Amino acid sequence: MSLERDALARAVAAEGRVVRVVVAEIRGSAPREAGTAMLVWAEGQSGTIGGGALEFEAAAEARRLLRDRGSARVARVALGPGLGQCCGGAVTLVSEVFDAEAVAALTGEVHARRVEGDRPMPLALRRALAGVRGGLGAPPVLLKEGWFLEPLALPARALWIWGAGHVGRALVGVLAPLPGLAITWVDTAAARFPDVLPDGVVPRIASDPAALVPEAPAGAHHLILTYSHALDLALCHALLVRGFGSAGLIGSDSKWARFRTRLGQLGHSPAEIARICCPIGQKTLGKHPQAIAIGVAAALLSEGVDRIAARDIAG
Description:
Number of strands: 14
Distance between the termini: 34 Å
Strand order of the largest sheet: 11-10-9-12-13-14
Oligomer: single chain
Order of helices and strands: HEEEHEEHEHEEEHEEEHEHHEH
């Protein structure tokens, strides 16, 4: 887990001062892993540190921190009868107030700061920071002697979803909350999108969606599921010309057979065409839009974006 600057910046831009509550340390059994965070503001919150009484109390404490004009608090919480929970472990929560100035200060690969006490930075953190400067990469979350170090999130992976029909909406609904994805959602008319979009999703409207393909990063990942086979084919062709990280197409085996033939006639080699995976999802989950979305999300979480497609479900 890592500190996601983009999500924090959006929340601060919308709400002003926001408290970020992060699981800094766990002992024994706990609802979420170290580095998990949620954002809390006066009238709402986003993300989850595990739900239940732990999250309820943490959110209440975060709002008290806002009201008291504080900056940071550290809480060590036993997950036992006192909270009405039976996990048996314990967590340490770090709650910090962020405003626009604090977000702007989040630069580099890691964020190290004192969150309690007045002790100097401990040797463990100094060594971790030296490793980052030496090219060893960001360390995991580390809480030591009142100092807290977190890796800053890497730039999000670009995911372009082409089509805002039933499957497109299901995919965006399932994928948008996942960390590390920057979703661009494309369709031919504004009326095809829902009235409210998830945070961080960028809508694009184009009567000819394939004309937007050159604007996607060369390493972006794509899911193609428009209402038109002609649009789908044009997008496949444009992506093969442009280049992509991965691409998945909704459809049946017979649709993909026709597309392979047409794409070959357009000048693409069999090896190039084979980089587009069709169909997407997991056959065992079925063909319901949400089932397809769950299959794609499961592949994202377990195997990475390059494995978003499976060859055993008809669209």
